[in-house]
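Please decode residue identities from the backbone states below.
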């Protein structure tokens, strides 16, 4: 494992499980001393112990990133224990129940915004001060492709992630004189099953993977590797960037036509012949009528 982060001190919020845990693991394996900033004490202690078993110097600090008092105390303890802060990964995030806009609750909206967006701002404010004392640092904010595209009923989460994208370029400009770089990763579909507590097997289908131009659903390790690069000196000329890591999904233009439907049939069944037959049926009105008659007789 590359040791390019040797001697660095990294805070990872929401590091108990999922993408945050994979990031904490990767940064630690690359030499960083890691602060596991996690609201859930069971998850935080589990991840701290796992990192210790991997030979990583790590501490768990219980933190609700929506609380300014918690964040300020966490950063102060990190600086005291490790002598400063060089890296911050704002990963902590929550979602809200998917409801139609008319049925969404203000308390759900506020909690999502408080954790995802305000938490990113708070942690950057306090960790950034410590970085400035050391002559610079790097912040990576974890957003989502939901900042750019949505499913119905996801307004709180999408708004929080869109806010993180905007906050990234604002902070990159503000903190440039302190030599603090700020970048953002917008992951797409990432399966976190193996980084849950306890780890579990992924329940993914072949279609889940094949609909991605890259041929698979993302893994937390994909985001961790990109994060490690962005906080390293190798990325010293990158700031204010938003990098989409989604296996190409947001670049795939999809219109429902005969060919797309036939391709879907081929993907689902693994039978190109059946796919061509479906395409012929869709293109030929007479054939469709004959098939309707056969279906009617069979029923």
């Amino acid at each position: 494992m590359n040791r390019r982060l040797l001697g660095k001190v990294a805070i990872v919020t929401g590091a108990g499980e999922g993408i945050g845990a994979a990031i904490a693991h990767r940064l630690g394996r690359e030499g960083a001393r890691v602060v596991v900033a996690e609201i859930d004490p069971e998850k935080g202690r589990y991840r701290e112990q796992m990192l210790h078993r991997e030979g990583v110097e790590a501490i768990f600090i219980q933190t609700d990133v929506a609380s300014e008092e918690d964040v300020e105390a966490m950063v102060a303890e990190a600086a005291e224990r490790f002598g400063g802060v060089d890296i911050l990964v704002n990963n902590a995030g929550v979602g809200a129940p998917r409801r139609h806009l008319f049925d969404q609750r203000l308390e759900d909206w506020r909690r999502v915004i408080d954790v995802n967006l305000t938490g990113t701002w708070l942690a950057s404010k306090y960790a950034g001060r410590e970085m400035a004392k050391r002559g610079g640092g790097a912040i990576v904010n974890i957003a989502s492709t939901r900042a750019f595209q949505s499913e119905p009923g996801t307004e709180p989460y999408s708004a929080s992630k869109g806010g993180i994208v905007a906050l990234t370029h604002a902070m990159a400009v503000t903190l440039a004189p302190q030599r603090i770089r700020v970048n953002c990763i917008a992951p797409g579909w990432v399966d976190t099953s193996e980084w849950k507590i306890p780890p579990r097997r992924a329940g993914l289908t072949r279609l889940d993977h094949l609909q991605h131009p890259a041929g698979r659903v993302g893994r937390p390790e994909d985001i961790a590797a990109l994060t490690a690069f962005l906080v390293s000196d190798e990325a010293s000329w990158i700031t204010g960037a938003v990098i989409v890591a989604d296996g190409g999904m947001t670049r795939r233009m999809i219109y429902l036509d005969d060919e797309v439907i036939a391709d879907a049939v081929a993907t689902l069944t693994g039978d190109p012949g059946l796919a061509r037959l479906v395409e012929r049926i869709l293109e030929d009105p007479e054939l469709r009528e004959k098939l309707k008659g056969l279906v009617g007789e069979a029923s």
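Observation: DSSP finds ten helices and seven strands in the chain.
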